[in-house]
Design goal:
With 168 residues, the protein is mainly alpha-helical. It is built from six helices and four strands, in the order ββαααααββα. Strand 1 and strand 2 form a beta hairpin.
Length: 168
């Protein structure tokens, strides 16, 4: 149950989703805003020497899968963390192939760019939409790539002493 803008109690799922959507849109920026550069305008090709450190191995996939909490909510693809964890060895090769090709081409499939947005209660009355924040539930498959890239970037920064003394 939620209160609408006039304070009326709403129980219809679609109406509650609409209330939360209006609330979230009122406090967040528009990703289609003309002031924001398109990612394609910001893209630059991966070049040597960093390119060589982006070699994806099956062990990297298994390590990333093992770091996903078992109870983590599935993203838009509906693949549960428990499934990935139970079949990490069998899935490591196809996932490695997907992300190796993605890195080689410098592209991420659109399918993995979508997420489900779920309301997360912050504080106060559960009846008020202003007391919720949106949480994007992304695919665990894309999280595997994110973990690998983060690990690779940090290693590159450490190996080349690119962190200042106050960081890290």
């Amino acid at each position: 149950m939620l209160n609408d803008e006039e304070g009326n109690i709403v129980t219809d799922n679609k109406a509650m989703a609409d209330i939360l959507q209006r609330q979230f849109l009122s406090v967040f920026s528009d990703p289609d805003c003309a002031d924001i550069a398109s990612p394609s305008e910001l893209f630059f090709p991966i070049t040597f020497p960093f390119e060589k450190s982006l070699q994806f191995e099956e062990s990297d996939v298994i390590e990333a899968i093992n770091k996903i909490p078992s109870n983590a909510a599935a993203g838009a693809d509906g693949i549960p963390a428990a499934f990935l964890k139970a079949h990490a060895r069998e899935l490591s090769c196809p996932i490695k192939l997907i992300w190796s090709e993605s890195i080689r081409k410098g592209l991420v499939p659109d399918y993995y760019k979508s997420s489900n947005v779920a309301p997360l209660h912050k504080k106060g009355s559960v009846m008020s939409a202003v007391n919720y924040r949106p949480v994007a539930l992304t695919s665990h498959i894309i999280k595997i790539l994110e973990r690998f890239l983060c690990k690779s970037i940090v290693k590159h920064m450490e190996d080349n002493e690119l962190f200042c003394g106050e960081e890290h």
